[in-house]
Amino acid sequence: MTEQVQGRDANPPNPDVAGGSAPAAPAGPVEDSRLAELERNLAAVRRRIATAVTAAGRQANPPRLIVVTKFHPAEDIRRLASLGIADVGENRDQEAAEKAAQLGDLGLRWHFIGQLQSNKAKSVVKYAQAVHSVDRPALAAALAKAMAAESDRTGRPALDCFIQVNLAEQAGDLAAAHRGGAAPDEVLGLAEQLAGAAGLRLAGVMAVAPLGAEPAAAFEKLAGISGQLAAQFPEATGISAGMSQDLEEAVRFGATHLRIGSDILGPRPALR
Fold first, then answer.
1. Which domains does the chain have, with CATH numbers?
2. What tens digit of pLDDT does each residue of 181-219 get?
3. 242: left (phi > 0), else alpha (psi -120 to 50), else beta?
4. pTM of the shown model
5. Closest of 188, 191, 184 to residue 218, by C-alpha
6. DSSP H/E element including 112
7. Could you tell me which residues carry N6-(pyridoxal phosphate)lysine (predicted)?
């Protein structure tokens, strides 16, 4: 029953007397258990990163944390934003585009981190600030064409492009092939194409440690490739590497962008 501000009964029922009814408890904030879970997980990951940064002597240049939110709802991203997260990663264009549209008020930086078909470039440049999976000339050309049109339409800033490098030792590694990536000896040629394209900014390199390989060895190799790239393109110093299971090794070998998903968000929800 709604309490009347005026004309209130001068003798309201006493809940301590038989037949009386207790007044409704005042409404308080609804506990958000998912927010609390994300806050705990995020704090734990931030502690791991801080420890790794200290061990590597990188307090002056810590890496940027990208929270990989693929398959998780937009509501989780809004919660993460309330906890200070500004960078999110997605690997499916349709899902990413929908979330970016829903959360446009948050001012987030969207990173596309999955294999990208050239015909999706036009869509991706509408919301992404960075693509971490440029691995072939055709995709670089498609992104340049899409950015030219999008820049004319909206005046948006340049798209950061990371060259994805395939670090697998065996060329026939099916898992590595599924993940994509340019061969190490293809990186400089692709870099020249990206650096010469209006609307694109060559940001650096990206890699995933091959399955079954020692992450430290993989990231040491990536750091070497990054050094060769930066020698010719001094602004391309970014290294996108490190996930939940190997962030410490990535920080040790100079990662500037960490892509962390499951240790913050938990297991993927069941696909519907």
1. 33-265 (3.20.20.10)
2. 999 999 999 999 999 999 999 999 999 999 989 999 999
3. left
4. 0.86
5. 184
6. strand 109-112
7. 70
